[in-house]
Amino acid sequence: MSWTDADRAFMAQAIDLATARMGETWPNPAVGCVIVKDGRIIAQAATAPGGRPHAEEQAVPAAGAEIEGATVYVTLEPCGARSSGRQSCAHFLTEAGVERVVIACLDPSPFAAGRGTERLRAKGLTVETGLMCDEGATLCEGFLHRLETGRPMVRISTDGVGFDGRFVAAAKADLVTELKRLGEAGYTRLWTSAGDLADALREQGLLTE
Ligand SMILES: Nc1c(N[C@@H]2O[C@H](COP(=O)(O)O)[C@@H](O)[C@H]2O)[nH]c(=O)[nH]c1=O
């Protein structure tokens, strides 16, 4: 797939929108959506705090009638079904008359996992996947880790940018219990500085490197 600098800039904007929502959207991943018509952004949104409404669910109505024939940049595959009984994001995009959807990475959740892209293609939309895939995957890796383990992911960072928050714990704390507590509070991706705490996490297999 050959993407233009403009494609990259619009996807970078979608990634920035989602990054700003990190830590606020459990039980859903933070997703960014930018809608472009004739080279201009006509609407944009990120997953709402608490995980709903989804990014596309907000951006599509905000774009209004201008959305006909537009290109949508989204950091995660639009959902093809909902756990909540609402309409899927793939439905909103096809109903609105969107022409092209550019996706950073696919969503392995049972509500998407190819169902989102299939629904879009079945209605004749052009679907392109993989633009800024690494950045898109970083946005949802903590969400997937939390689903699999019940605990937030912890990585070493120097500045904490793009993380839900900083992991701090007393020297004698039970780290698994602390992480489970933070997972229940909705955290998915935490950072810690290199040092004693990071070493203790690593020894217990709780640090992702
Ligand atoms: N947050 C988010 C998505 N999140 C995905 O949608 C799935 C179903 O969501 P729900 O019915 O709300 O539980 C959920 O499992 C998650 O993988 N999808 C999107 O198209 N856009 C969004 O902004």
TrEMBL record:
It comes from the Bacteria. Residues 5-128 form the CMP/dCMP-type deaminase domain. One of its GO terms (molecular function) is diaminohydroxyphosphoribosylaminopyrimidine deaminase activity. PROSITE patterns: CYT_DCMP_DEAMINASES_2. Coiled coil: none annotated. This is Riboflavin biosynthesis protein RibD. Pfam families: dCMP_cyt_deam_1.
